[in-house]
Amino acid sequence: MFHRFTNITIALIVLFIKLTLPVADENSEHEEDIDAKHKNEQSPGHWERWLLITQGFIAPQFMSAIIWHQLSADPARLLLPSLICLGGSALFALIVLWLSDSTQKPRWYPFISIAGFVISIAWISTVADEMVSILKAFGVIWNISEAILGLTVFAIGNSLDDLAANISVAQHRHPVMALSACFGGPLLSILLGISISGLYIFAKGLRTKHQIVEIDLHSSQTLFVTAGTVIVILVATLAMMLWTRWKMTKSVGLVLIAIWLIGTIANLVLRVET
Predict the structure, then answer these.
(1) How high is the mean pLDDT of the chain?
(2) Positive or negative, the Cα torsion across 240, 241, 245, 248?
(3) Which of 56, 103, 140, 158 is most enclosed, with most CB atoms within 10 A?
(4) DSSP code of residue 215
(5) What's the average model confidence in pLDDT over 94-104?
(6) How many CB atoms lie within 10 A of CB 97?
(7) What distance in Å separates the CA atoms of residue 211 and residue 202, rounded to the nearest whole number?
(8) What is the sign, positive or negative, of the torsion defined by CA atoms of 120, 122, 124, 130?
(9) For 72-111, where are the alpha helices, taking DSSP H only?
(10) CA–CA dist 62, 58 (Å, integer)
(11) Span 1-12, mean pLDDT?
């Protein structure tokens, strides 16, 4: 029963993502590996035109609902964007029907991937916001501080996608690119995350209170321990790279993991004691 429920839930999620996320499905470069009989059964120029038209109606409504949810909760402000999106979707459907048929894709079809990229960012942002809200609720129920959740669950969750991407890049014989991404990803997240969030708070304060709102960062022991751990990891990485003549070894990885564990355990101990 539970297995059937999970299958139905996953199928509904995949269906909704399929209807809201347009993807330019070009021919794969490994098409010669497909079975010859299966290839002969496929139409040579067939493409999912009606799926693209359906996505043209649903995806803009999804984006307008996401933006409305982030900026305002007044239902009256959602009507006008929805009507504008509906008119644009109708125009898009007419263009698709006019410039293409079931066997010929329009010339601008590859640019659909740009819209898919933007909508995928909206999906990621929405899912992340909901996960944060759920974990905050669990933290309130179980009396777990937000600092501990951020140091453990949020930190690991935010790093899993980077971990998978870096491992994949390293397995494709691009170790320098993977190592650079290990430092470039967090650097980009810190700089853009703090700067964009701060600019948004400043702009919101100017719009509502007509003055720049100061951001009060409450310093704590965990903040200093975390910052110290990051500095120690960076210095240790540089020292070990010089020692091993810029070769990544297992000992380097074990030392870095040990430093992270020590810093995380120290933070947890400080939060529990306070």
Answers:
(1) 79
(2) positive
(3) 56
(4) P
(5) 83
(6) 12
(7) 8
(8) negative
(9) 76-99
(10) 6
(11) 83
Which tokens hold the place of 112? 């659909």
Q: Which two tokens stand for residue 134?
A: 């759920």
Residue 28 pLDDT exceeds 70: no
Instruction: Give the separation between CA 199 and CA 102, rounded to whole angstroms.
Output: 47
Give the total residue count for the chain: 274
Q: How is residue 53 written in tokens?
A: 């038209």
DSSP single-letter state for residue 173:
T
Q: Residue type for 92, please?
A: F
Count how many Cα atoms sit within 13 Å of the Cα of residue 126 in the half-sphere of its side chain.
15
Distances (CA, A) of 106 to 59, 119, 157, 198, 242: 19, 21, 40, 42, 54
User: pLDDT (tens digit, 9 = 90+) per residue, 192-248?
Assistant: 877 887 787 777 777 777 677 677 767 778 778 888 998 999 899 999 989 988 888
Q: At what angle do helices 155-171 and 175-208 cross, to 10 degrees?
A: 150
Provide the pLDDT for residue 72. Answer: 64
End-to-end CA distance of the chain: 45
For the purposes of burial, counting CB atoms within 10 Å of the CB of 249, is it exposed (0-12), middle (13-18) or buried (19 or more)?
exposed
Q: SS3 of 31, please? A: helix
Q: pLDDT by residue (tens digit) across 149-181?
A: 777 777 777 777 778 778 888 888 888 888 888
| Closest by CA position to 162, among listed 147, 176, 180, 150 | 180
- Amino acid of residue 119: I
Q: Which residue has the tokens 């890049």?
A: 169
Largest CA distance in the chain: 69
Alpha carbon 41 to its chain centroid, in Å, reads 37
